[in-house]
Known about the structure:
- With about 675 residues, the protein is an alpha+beta fold.
- The chain is built from 22 helices and 26 strands.
- Strands 3, 4, 5, 6, 7, 8, 9, 10, 11 and 12 form a ten-stranded mixed β-sheet that branches. It has a six-stranded mixed β-sheet with strand order 19-18-21-20-23-22. The protein has a five-stranded mixed β-sheet with strand order 13-14-17-15-16, sandwiched between helices.
- A hairpin with a 2-residue loop joins strand 22 and strand 23.
- The longest helix has 25 residues, at about 395-420.
- The protein starts with a helix and ends with a helix.
Amino acid sequence: MSRLGRILKLSAQSVLFKSGRDCMVRNNLKIIQAGKTFPVRFQHSEATKEEDYHSIIKDTEKPIGESTKHEFQAETRMLLDIVARSLYSEKEVFIRELISNASDALEKFRYISLSDTESGNIKDKDRALEIHISTDKNNRTFTIQDTGIGMTKDELISNLGVIAKSGSKAFLEQLKAKQTAEESIIGQFGVGFYSSFMVADKVEVYTRSPNEPNGWKWTSDGMGNYEIQNAEGVQPGTKIVLHLKADCREFSDEDTIKQIITKYSNFIGSSIYLNGKKANIIQPVWLADPKSVTTQQHIDFYKFISGSYDVPRYTLHYKTDVPMSIAALLYFPEGKPGLFEMSRETGSGVALYTKRVLIKSHTDNILPKWLRFVKGVVDSEDIPLNLSRELLQDSNLIRKLRDVLTSRVIKFLHDQLKKNQEQYEKFYQDYGLFIKEGIITTPIQAEKENAAKLLLFESSHLESDKKITLTDYISRAKDSRDIFYLAAPSRTLAEASPYYESLKKRSQEVLFCYEPYDELVLMQLQQFQGHKLISVEKDMRDDKAASDLTNLSDDSLKRSEINELSDWLKSKLSGKVVTVNATTRLENHPCVITVEEMAAARHFIKTQSHSLSEDRRYAILQPQLEINPRHPIIKKLHKLKNSDPQLAELLANQLFANSMVSAGLVEDPRVLLTSMNDLLVKALDKH
């Protein structure tokens, strides 16, 4: 890359960055999970009617006998402090953790109740599998209860008495030993329960294993000890009561809990009831059979996850198990992007889930920044999480997920382009800037070229309302390995450009770039599928054959006259041009200016040159003047340099200024009016 290119690489990249009721009853859906098919239905969003009230939370538990005191078997109280107070960035995630644990308990019960060898020992195995939550502002309590597997006394000690001892993980290991696996199990680390102590100064657990007549009560203040006591009146499953700290009283407010459930746990597989009312009413559409989801269902779900009121322009419903397990539902907005969406500071619109549990509502590293306009959901069971489930681990796997999703999005858009180019062109008009940003900011050439399949340009070989891709250009390129492009504000100016004359004469197809950043994109891209991308200005500068003056026509200056005029021009334009050459590529224009990388130079003039002196500006640009020895003005200039040196010098400077304007290297052409008037005055003096 030239000196100019290196200086302007960073600034070239920056140009892109300046420039009611949602869910009604619908058709049946089918969700496939762990090899089973479950029919699901969208729920009414209307308020739950009185007869729909349903809660299992009752104060029926009664401790009996003496309690036994135990110490946590983790190393020190400090470890409990870290887990309970330092692991999570937001206190509200304790609700997500407790709901996830309850969901695990339900899935364990579901698996065991269906097992041929163990189901016979399960009582009441047909009971509804549900999660219930209640809040009590007066007593400042938060209660969650499930109808799942429950725990024995030994399991209480093992699962709650040892920090980082995960019952879910042990259960999965047992299943793997039997060469089976229940993929709905969420918990892996066994620390989620202890997030309760972020908000509670006392936690009570009532639990009963399916085949035990009585249950157990577990109590702790999180200070290093806990008590276990036998209890009667305990329902099968587990009930957790949090006595909230004074500064955490908001978690006893129903509306607050409703919002948190919707944010993190809305798509848990089992029903969640909050104070007797169904709380998770939206179904995880991304897990449904894509063919079973209607357009209206997509519109409803899109509004739910995006928080917007428009509709999706395109919908990508994508599921795969190779190279990793992914269920993705991505939407491309119908509306044009606003200033907020254009900003690179805008976060991702894609939420990341693992087994229906929200991990991050805006995950910036599973799609590249330039795809930030995409909205939707990605659910992957293969993603490893850290203990708090807030930060992603294993960067190689995350990169793999990112690569798979990015390639799939590009393929999808390319398919839309081939299927209906007219519709795609409307999308490209609104969101093409993001694609171009991706090409400029992506460091990997293969990724640049993959995104470049989506670019559209007008062609010199087609009408102005027709656009083609780089692939289309290559298909007509025959034996050429080059792709030529020309930047101009409009087609009229492009076709009249002095740089285009010789290419037009030999019927060479040229792509026309009308947006200032188009040529920056192609300059950064450099090549596409083995074809080199070349600006016509650079092609003229590098064309050695065009400077061969051995076969000059009769209407041209002689070789000696050309050399004489070139030396004179270089002298008079000292500090502006680095060299003056004659070229045979010009037809109707007297001269042109070429620089090493015109796209970067034009961007430099628009964004940085105003802070530099004229000498410094030209020193960076290194302009080269190419003259047409057959043009009447050039031939007249050769005579004037001797007969009227003052007029000749004014003319030379005006030709240089005109060429700079034609090259797009003058920020404001009005500054040339003074020199132009001086030339006119001098010329009129002769008459």
